[in-house]
Write a structure and sequence with these properties.
Number of strands of chain A: 14
Order of helices and strands of chain A: EEEHEEEEHEHEEHEEHEHEH
Number of helices of chain A: 7
Shape of chain A: elongated
Strand content of chain A: 25-35%
Oligomer: homodimer
CATH topology of the largest domain in chain A: Alpha/beta knot
Largest interface: A-B, 34 and 34 residues
Mean pLDDT of chain A: 92
């Protein structure tokens, strides 16, 4: 059975003190009924875990004294980032949960011609990502981007990454590419339900994305995202 | 945009006539308001699709005349089968949906020491699988096993398959294995929430399963199942 981690935002950690707030405070003190002097494990989402002792409990937060700090190497999926055409809430939450567990660095929902038009609740998505990293033992919280248009996102991409477009009509398999370029950062791009338009696909390919066939079947956006990330993880060393 | 398929059970196809029943009948006639003489596309779940014309509509079924029949080759994931420790309904349904879209041959829920004890609704699971193959353009309906105990399932496995156990403590990565044994049938086994017990892991390894580390993080059962299948798909040729 694995250790339970509480999440502490890095800006709540100063010297050897960490302040637990919000859901994690309530879960710790009200649900698990931890008391002053109890030992708990923390993670900060930027690569560290801590063993700490609860020093004082207030009404809305508790202060913990850090005893040991561990740094975890970035996982094998570090350097993978995900862009995807915005989908309905349930599928969106599933993407956030799974991509966070799989340890991607960044998750970017995109407005595209066929994507669902909706406001996203960033706080809720961050909570889902935090729960998922705690549960999976991932010490790195992915950055969840605000919703951007596809062209806006394309213009801001880092120049050196390997760019892969999940495309059922792609001529290459993901394995064909990875034998050649094993260890650079990877950006995986997945269309919304209904896919990218012809015009969008052209602009994506124009931006250097290689269309790769993840599967001979049409995968839903959330499944294609997971399958793409898992395939990159399996193939990178 | 892709073609919509109606599912016809193979035993409802005789000579050049196919009988649409149940949900597919209702969807075709009551929702989409198809009429006699209309053309529709069918799939039978054993590898064929059909172009057909509705010949007569009854109260509970309609008879279609088959015009052309197409046989689809097994997909790249044919020959992959999945065993997993039984999980709660929502996760179970997600596994069925995703594994069917990814084209596995068989899906086997297993009773294990840490798995959820529950009856499963086979009809509902089959419906989910049918919807998923229609949606993904998979022409092959996976066989969904009844719930068996782990030892019972182990005793009935085909002898020649490559056996992979998803195990965060595994010494090998999935890519290490696939460079050696590329094209045999593959069985992917995933533990329930809480994992296999020590004793179960020993019996599984004793049955020839190779513990492979899909990821450095702990993946939930449903995510491990998809990640494992996707990795095998990415690595098989």
């Amino acid at each position: 059975m694995h250790q339970y981690f509480f999440f502490v935002s890095p800006d709540r950690i100063k010297d050897n003190l960490a302040e637990l707030t919000d859901d994690d405070f309530r879960h710790c003190v009200q649900v698990l009924r931890k008391r002053e002097g109890d030992e708990i494990a923390l993670l900060d989402g930027i690569g560290h875990s801590y063993l700490a002792v609860i020093q004082s409990i207030g009404n809305k937060s508790c202060v913990c004294r850090i005893i040991t700090r561990q740094q975890r190497e970035k996982s094998l999926s570090a350097g993978i980032s995900l862009g995807f055409g915005l989908v309905k809430n349930r599928a969106l939450e599933s993407i956030i949960r799974d991509a966070a567990a799989l340890g991607v660095t960044a998750i970017n929902p995109l407005n595209t011609q066929h994507s669902v038009k909706q406001a996203i609740n960033s706080d809720r998505l961050k909570k889902i990502a935090v729960e998922s990293i705690k549960q999976s033992g991932n010490f790195h919280l992915p950055e969840i981007g605000h919703v951007r248009s596809l062209p806006e996102w394309l213009a801001e991409l880092p120049p050196k990454a390997l760019r892969l477009l999940a495309d059922i009509d792609g001529m290459q398999r993901i394995g064909d590419i990875f034998t050649k370029e094993p260890n650079s950062p990877v950006i995986v791009l997945v269309g919304p339900e209904g896919g990218f338009s012809e015009e969008e696909t052209q602009s994506v390919v124009g931006a250097g994305f290689i269309p790769v066939r993840l599967h001979t079947h049409r995968l839903r956006t959330e499944l294609a995202a997971v399958a793409g990330i898992a395939a990159v993880c399996a193939l990178s060393s």
